C-alpha cells in the first residue's frame, strides 16, 4: 500500500512543475542527468535543492 501513496505523491509533485520547465528535462538524455532513466528518478532529481 505504501507504493500507492508514493506514486500519488510523485504524481502530484509532477504536475506542480511548470510544463516549460518539465519538457526540457524529459528531452535530456538520462546520461546527462546522471540518474536512473525512471519517472521516480526524475522526480527525486527535480526536487533536490
Notes on the protein architecture:
- With 49 residues, this protein is mostly helical.
- It has one domain (2-46).
- It contains four helices and no strands.
- It has helices at 2-16, 19-27, 30-33, 39-46.
- It is globular and about 30 Å long.
- The termini are far apart.
- The chain crosses the membrane at residues 6-28.
- It comes from Rattus norvegicus.
- Keywords: Membrane, Transmembrane, Transmembrane helix.
- This is RCG37595.
What's the count of strands?
0
Query: What percentage of amino acids are in beta strands?
Result: under 5%
Structural class: mainly alpha
Helix content: over 70%
Largest sheet: none
Separation of the first and last Cα atoms: 28 Å
Order of helices and strands: HHHH
Instruction: Quote the average pLDDT.
Output: 66
The general outline is globular
Radius of gyration: 11 Å
Please give the domain count.
1
Low-confidence stretches: none
Indicate the multimeric state: single chain
SS element count, helices: 4
Amino acid at each position: 500500500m505504501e507504493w500507492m501513496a508514493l506514486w500519488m505523491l510523485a504524481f502530484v509533485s509532477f504536475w506542480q512543475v511548470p510544463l516549460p520547465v518539465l519538457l526540457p528535462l524529459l528531452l535530456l538524455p538520462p546520461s546527462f542527468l546522471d540518474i536512473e532513466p525512471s519517472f521516480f528518478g526524475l522526480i527525486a532529481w527535480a526536487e533536490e535543492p
